Amino acid sequence: MRVNGLIALLTLGLAASICGAGVAAHTDDHPALPDGPGRDVMIRVCSQCHDPELAADQQFDKAGWKDLVDKMASKGANATEAEFDQIVTYLSTAFPVK
Ligand code: HEC
Questions:
Q1: pTM of the entire structure?
Q2: Whose CA is nearest to atom 23 of ligand 1?
Q3: 30-94 architecture in CATH?
């Protein structure tokens, strides 16, 4: 068991270094989500229930994104206040009102 865990960790580390370039690591999985600070947190938190790219169909100002993120939190989205803040900032930059 312990050995398996270690191998899993090593594999993850290897995958992360192969993908390189930090924020760009998930670009291929979610091309609809532009790069930006908070993207990784958003993908992690917003993938708990559905494809995070659902957000790419919406445009809101910051207050609107906060409402939507609050709504997801009330459905059970699991993150800290700081992470929700980062997500709102990311979304309002990536998908602003046109
Ligand atoms: C606990 C489960 C859960 C998590 C986590 C979650 N959502 Fe949702 N989301 C839902 C459900 C269920 C729906 C289906 C529509 C509804 O019930 O309003 C939905 C629908 C949506 C929609 C479609 C528009 C709408 O208002 O229905 C968007 C956009 C969305 N989610 C964005 C997000 C974002 C951004 C995050 C991360 C902060 C997130 N979701 C995290 C459960 C979740």
A1: 0.79
A2: 54
A3: Orthogonal Bundle (1.10)
